[in-house]
Amino acid sequence: MTGAPGRSAPTIDPKDLTLKISGAIIGLVIVLWLGKNFLYDPGQFLTVAIQGLKNGALYALIALGYTMVYGIIQLINFAHGDLFMLGTMMSAFVITTVLGQSSPGPAGYAAFVVALVVSMAFCGGLNVGIERFAYRRLRRAPKLAPLITAVGVSFVLQFIGLRWNGSGQKQWQSVIPDGQINIGSVEIDVQTIIIFAVTIPLLLLLTWLVTRTKQGRAMRATAQDQDAARLMGINVDRTISFTFALGGALAGAAGLMYQQVVGTTAYNLGFQLGLIAFTSAVLGGIGNLTGAVLGGLLIGLIQGLNDGLVYGLGQQWSQSVVFTILILLMVFKPAGLLGKNVTEKV
Amino acid sequence: MSALLEVRDLTVAYGNIVAVQGLSLDVHEGEIVTLIGSNGAGKSTTLRTISGLLKARSGSVAFNGERIDHLEGHETVAKGICQSPEGRRIFGGLTVDENLELGAFLRKDKAEIAADREYVLGLFPRLRERLTQKAGTMSGGEQQMLAVARALMGRPRLLILDEPSMGLAPVLVDLIFETIVKINEQGTTILLVEQNALAALRVAKRAYVLESGKIKLSGDAAELAKDPEVIKAYLGG
Ligand SMILES: Nc1ncnc2c1ncn2[C@@H]1O[C@H](COP(=O)(O)OP(=O)(O)O)[C@@H](O)[C@H]1O
Ligand SMILES: [Mg+2]
């Protein structure tokens, strides 16, 4: 009963061998390609890699929301990208409209911090509300019902974005300084530093919450077995709300940073970034928090290298490269980088 | 004196399928009561309803003189009912220690929790060697010990055990039943569901025999063990 029925027998299967050999060839090509680019111009290589990781950090924050919700109620929350989109608008509203900040300086930085708190609370609260009113009553319904509902919620959020922001893009002034620092021939923008300065503490806080606190233990127990969690005295509804709050708050933080770094807001932004973030979650192994971060950083890195390197395919191929890699990875590792093929439920 | 647990006229259904019909049973403070019956008789359904995981179609459940049939699963735990469910249902991805901590989820008394942890590790020394191991990687017997230990960590007034001996080697079955008696001697009231009717009737004070969702027989466990009908149907006689 407790063995691993999904594990394949130790005999060598010719199909398996073909898969391994082709995997090794693809891996070798990638390593050679990276090596050639690195030798061509190490400074530029590292510069674009860091640039890629900067976007990757935002993907990671959004991907965490997909993966946490999936982990706890096995729902692909299609509306999550749109929640991020509303986070960008809330940030612009707080910093520019309410606090009137449009340039770097002490007041601008204070506005940034205020917007971070407001956007995280707004998106976290909104996500809790969405779960409460749209998904909760469908928890025992066939899987397709909550999925379609999530698509519906996505449209509702986009409509709110459309009314809030108009049908086009809006440009905003940033309170983050434009400059960059140089370490040798490697350039790092101040924006990148700010993104990491916000993202890393958030990830550490999340890790602490999930692994060290009672609430986090309740989350992990609920994700594995809801009825068993109830028998421990865990309030499953509240634990699920907490999970939506966390995921939403991370999307809110990502929304602020996107709005400040890229400087634009648009009602359909959530679709594009949501898809990339969802891909990150799948790449890392959906349901796995570390996997989502890894997947997000990896996709950011791949995009950065592809778009910025001399021997890269260039920006117009960016999405194609990302999804080709996703498809290849799924062939070799269907459960994602850190996903498990065998479920833990016995 | 009224019973600690009073189930009256309980009917539970899954959609159109009525699994338990008009069931009444009592568990008094300090007793081991067993509910036996063949596969599909409705034993687990009864236990799940008592714990608030299922809602009864009609009838009532009272605990300590208070109606609890409207409560949710986590709320019955707060009242003092802990269940080790059928199939163990331990948290396989969490460590053994984390499983034990979850058993004491609603408790705040740190010192008492630590004492109870020592107590359950004393009952099942095997678990002490595996505290940092992922619970899902343990053997079936060890997982069963963990499931019982985890339920005990809630310091229940009523401990519900659903087939604690299922799928275990005979040596381990003996160990589990010995431990059940030990736990009861420490003052914990137990409602035990078993397919291993012989062993269950041996440790229990009173017993109920469930058949197709209805109580067929009930009474003193030792006497039921001698009942020709029971012997024929459940004791392989
Ligand atoms: N989740 C369920 N949905 C529908 N029917 C169920 C479900 N669980 C149990 N049953 C049915 O209810 C009856 C009683 O089941 P159960 O309480 O598990 O029996 P026991 O624990 O005595 O083996 C059986 O006929 C079983 O098929
Ligand atoms: Mg059963």
List the helices and strands and how they pair.
The complex is a heterodimer of chains A (346) and B (237).
Chain A: H1 14-40, H2 42-73, H3 80-98, H4 106-135, H5 144-165, E1 170-171, E2 180-183, E3 186-189, H6 190-212, H7 214-224, H8 226-231, H9 236-262, E4 264-265, H10 269-284, H11 289-308, H12 318-332
Antiparallel strand pairs in A: 1-4, 2-3
Helix pairs in contact in A: 1-2, 2-6, 2-9, 2-10, 2-11, 3-4, 3-5, 3-9, 3-10, 4-9, 6-7, 6-9, 7-9, 10-11, 11-12
Chain B: E1 5-14, E2 17-27, E3 32-36, H1 43-50, E4 58-63, E5 66-67, H2 73-79, E6 81-84, H3 96-103, H4 110-123, H5 125-128, H6 140-152, E7 158-162, H7 170-185, E8 189-194, H8 197-203, E9 206-211, E10 214-220, H9 221-224, H10 228-234
Parallel strand pairs in B: 3-8, 3-9, 6-7, 7-8
Antiparallel strand pairs in B: 1-2, 1-4, 4-5, 9-10
Helix pairs in contact in B: 3-6
Adenosine-5'-diphosphate is lined by residues 14, 17, 19, 37, 39-45 of chain B.
Please describe what this structure looks like.
The complex is a heterodimer of chains A (346) and B (237). Chain A is mainly α and 346 residues long. Chain A has one domain (40-332): ABC transporter involved in vitamin B12 uptake, BtuC, CATH 1.10.3470. In chain A, 72% of the residues lie in helices and 3% in strands. Chain A has helices spanning 14-40, 42-73, 80-98, 106-135, 144-165, 190-212, 214-224, 226-231, 236-262, 269-284, 289-308, 318-332, and strands at residues 170-171, 180-183, 186-189, 264-265. Chain A has a two-stranded antiparallel sheet. A two-stranded antiparallel sheet of chain A has the order 2-3. In chain A, helix 1 (14-40) crosses helix 2 (42-73) and helix 11 (289-308) packs across helix 12. The longest helix of chain A has 32 residues, at 42-73. Chain B has helices spanning 43-50, 73-79, 96-103, 110-123, 125-128, 140-152, 170-185, 197-203, 221-224, 228-234; strands at residues 5-14, 17-27, 32-36, 58-63, 66-67, 81-84, 158-162, 189-194, 206-211, 214-220. Chain B is built from ten helices and ten strands. In chain B, helix 3 packs parallel to helix 6. With 237 residues, chain B is an alpha/beta fold. The longest helix of chain B has 16 residues, at 170-185. Chain B has a domain at 1-77 and 195-237: P-loop containing nucleotide triphosphate hydrolases (Rossmann fold, 3-Layer(aba) Sandwich). Classes of the chains: A mainly alpha (346), B alpha/beta (237). Chains A and B meet through helix 7 and helix 8 of A and helix 2, helix 3 and helix 6 of B. Bound molecules: adenosine-5'-diphosphate and magnesium ion. Adenosine-5'-diphosphate (ADP) binds at residues 14, 17, 19, 37, 39-45 of chain B.
